[in-house]
Amino acid sequence: MFDIGVPELLLILVIGLVFFGPGKLPELGKAIGKSLREFKNASEEDQKAAGGKEINGNEEQKIIDVKEEQKK
């Protein structure tokens, strides 16, 4: 998707250290990761609601687990 190499990643890391400092950088990374995860989950839910047929292995297993719980 993106053609980002090691030099570009190092530059981004240095800029992040300058702006946010070493203490806040892990918190910032955690917040960004959580936001991306929530965005991905929301877009997958929208796709399911729209009748999309793409389901990955993890989602398929979750569906199976839910159906088994409903049978109990």
TrEMBL record:
Kindly list the residue ranges recorded as spanning the membrane.
6-25
Which keywords label this protein? Cell membrane, Membrane, Protein transport, Translocation, Transmembrane, Transmembrane helix, Transport
Q: Has UniProt tagged this entry with the keyword Magnesium?
A: no
- Pfam families with a match to the protein in the record: TatA_B_E
Region called Disordered, residue ranges: 43-72
For this UniProt entry, what is the primary localization, expressed as one broad class? membrane
Q: Where is the composition biased (Basic and acidic residues)?
A: 59-72
Superkingdom is Bacteria
Q: How does it sit in the membrane?
A: Single-pass membrane protein
Respond yes or no to whether keyword Transmembrane helix is given for this record: yes
| Cellular compartment(s) | Cell membrane; Membrane
How it assembles, according to the record, is: Forms a complex with TatC.
Q: Which family does it belong to?
A: Belongs to the TatA/E family.
* Function (record text): Part of the twin-arginine translocation (Tat) system that transports large folded proteins containing a characteristic twin-arginine motif in their signal peptide across membranes. TatA could form the protein-conducting channel of the Tat system. Part of the twin-arginine translocation (Tat) system that transports large folded proteins containing a characteristic twin-arginine motif in their signal peptide across the thylakoid membrane. Involved in delta pH-dependent protein transport required for chloroplast development, especially thylakoid membrane formation. TATC and TATB mediate precursor recognition, whereas TATA facilitates translocation.
List the protein's name.
Sec-independent protein translocase protein TatA
Q: What's the source species for this entry?
A: Pectinatus haikarae
